[in-house]
Each structure stands twice: as C-alpha cells, then as structure tokens.
Backbone:
C-alpha cells in the first residue's frame, strides 16, 4: 500500500470552543494519534493565537506532535483576545496545495468562513474530510453544503477525550 502524505489544518480556537462547549476536554496526544491512524496525517498544523501565559499549552501541543502556527493577538476594548487565524490557515493550505506538499487535507473547524477554502480544495481533489468540533448543530451550513464528508468530533470523543481518573473515596478507619 502506498504511503500517504496527508496534512491537517486545525483552527485552534474553533476546536477549543467547540469541544469545550460540548462539555468535554480533548487529549491532544490521543487526538494526534487518532489523526495519524485514521487519516494518515503526517503534519498537523495547529493555528493559534500567541499569548505568553499559555506557554504550557503550546509546549503540550508541540509534545503531542502538532506544528504550531502562531497569530499575533490583538485585544478589543474589553481586554478580550482576538485570535482569528482564518487567513493564516487558508494561506498555508493554498500554499501546500500549489507546492504539492501533501496528498490530501483534513480541515478541523465548524466555521463557515472556510467554505471557500473547501470548494477550492474540492476543485483540486485535495480535501479528505472536515472534522467539526462539538455537535452537528454547531457546524456551519456553508460547510455542510459543500458535500465534503464531515465527522463530528463529539461522535468520536471516546477515542480522543481526556480521561479523567477519579480517585476512590477514602474510607474512614476503624
């Protein structure tokens, strides 16, 4: 069997919000391994805003095997970070297609702003699947209309979620 060279493009903020709003946490090591096993992902780009206090997260993502692509963060009037990495993700995907760097692409997002990218990837026969964080109702209709296969991460959370080990209650002694 031919060895595939597939890349994943992950909208980090969309992944975080989608999973978090569904009430579970992702295990980045398990997620990265699942991407490799299921979709033959050699490189997994993780697009994320650069905030110094999040350095432990960045280290964990790199240790799990993700290639981080940082976006400079700007703050709105309420001191909330704006972490929009859409343009960076689209540019990297288009660059990789034009340079023929990979066989197929996997896109991790629920954001309809990526529908134009999906259509472009379809025209080049490069898109394999969209992985939508969270539940089906939160995935944009614009992505659904592309007819590209969509896997909802909520449906595979048993394979990629962080397993919380609960400690047994301490029994009182005699």
Residues:
């Amino acid at each position: 069997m031919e060895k595939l060279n597939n890349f994943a493009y992950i909208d980090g903020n969309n992944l975080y919000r989608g999973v978090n709003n569904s009430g579970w946490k992702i295990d980045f090591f398990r997620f990265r391994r699942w991407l490799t096993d299921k979709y033959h992902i050699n490189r997994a780009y993780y697009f994320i805003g650069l905030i110094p206090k999040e350095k432990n997260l960045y280290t964990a993502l790199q240790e799990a095997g993700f290639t981080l692509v940082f976006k400079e963060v700007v703050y709105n009037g309420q001191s909330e970070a704006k972490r929009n990495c859409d343009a960076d993700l689209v540019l990297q995907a288009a660059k990789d297609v034009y340079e023929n760097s990979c066989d197929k692409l996997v896109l991790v997002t629920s954001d309809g702003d990526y529908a134009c990218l999906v259509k472009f990837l379809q025209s080049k026969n490069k898109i394999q699947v969209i992985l939508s964080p969270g539940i089906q109702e939160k995935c944009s209709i614009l992505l659904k209309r592309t007819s590209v296969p969509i896997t909802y991460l909520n449906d595979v959370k048993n394979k990629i979620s962080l397993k919380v080990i609960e400690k047994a209650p301490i029994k009182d002694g005699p």
Q: What stands out?
A: The first strand starts at residue 6 and ends at 11. The mean pLDDT is 91. DSSP finds seven helices and eight strands in the chain. The first helix runs from residue 12 to 21.
